[in-house]
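Provenance

Sequences were taken from public entries as deposited. Structures were produced by running a predictor on each sequence independently, with no templates supplied. The record for Reverse transcriptase zinc-binding domain-containing protein from Solanum verrucosum is shown for reference.
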Amino acid sequence: MPTYMMSLFPDTIRRNFLWQGNGEGVKKFHLVKWDAVISNKKEGGLGIKNLKAHNKSLLLKWLWRLATDDQSLWKDTIFARYGKEGSWTTKEVNTPYGVGLWRTIRNQWPRIWNNSVINVGNGRKTLFWNDTWMGQTPLRQQFPDIYILNQQKMATIVEVRNEQGWNLIFRRFLNDWEVERMTQFYNTLEQAKNLTCEEDKLTWKLEKDGKFKVKSAYKLLDTSTETKELWPWKMIWKGKIPHKVAYFTWLVARQSVLTQDNLMKRGKDLCSRCFFCESETETINHLFLHCKVTEKLWKYFINRRGITWTQKS
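Predicted structure for Reverse transcriptase zinc-binding domain-containing protein:
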């Protein structure tokens, strides 16, 4: 099924299918929080895809194409309809009617911008003051006092640089106390590379080759990873055992099996007593580890492996 169609299904439907199957009208307990279910198997989940994050990662791909693709009709149409903000994207969409789709896409632009680096070539696309090309922040944030004095606030790099050096125009002469700051500013600019014949381009920081990939964008957007404890979750799924057994082991490891004590926590009126030993409360740890009957089973199988089972007193 196409990803877009999958993204239309609310998580409620997926949750109900996981815990209830096709049984309509049959209410069953949801044993594990959904955020944990959709987290990675290595981190204690089932590895079910987070459709919201995946859908947003596909939207980011359109923004990346808008910023990096060669000139094309669809780009010209988008820029003509919504206007340009710098050289990489459109202006923010504030009109309430008729632009819902692009507004949703455009709202994701900060995720592209904050995870990209500009590689300056000929300097025709990169804004000297407003783009992040020298250091970790735009120059207007690094040198706000110098930025206020400058008269070329929307200039690209190529517009303020020539063969002799930087061609910056300021609206007045410097005061004595501003000279040192201006010196720091020009010392910073000395680190800039010479302009080339190549176009400026964005590089995606989350990939070694600098190319945008939906997979790395998905990892960036997926906030469902919530399990932090040091548990060898991968061992559950790597074993050569039936999937149903692995799934049940996963529930046991998450303390989510419906033992009597868990049922009582969910409001059921029960007398919590282990049916095997009839002497202890039926908890997950007791039922699968500490019960006398369970202990005998563990000892039997472990001894066959030549290992001695020792319980803490």
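Residues 51-119+200-221 form one domain.
The mean pLDDT is 85.
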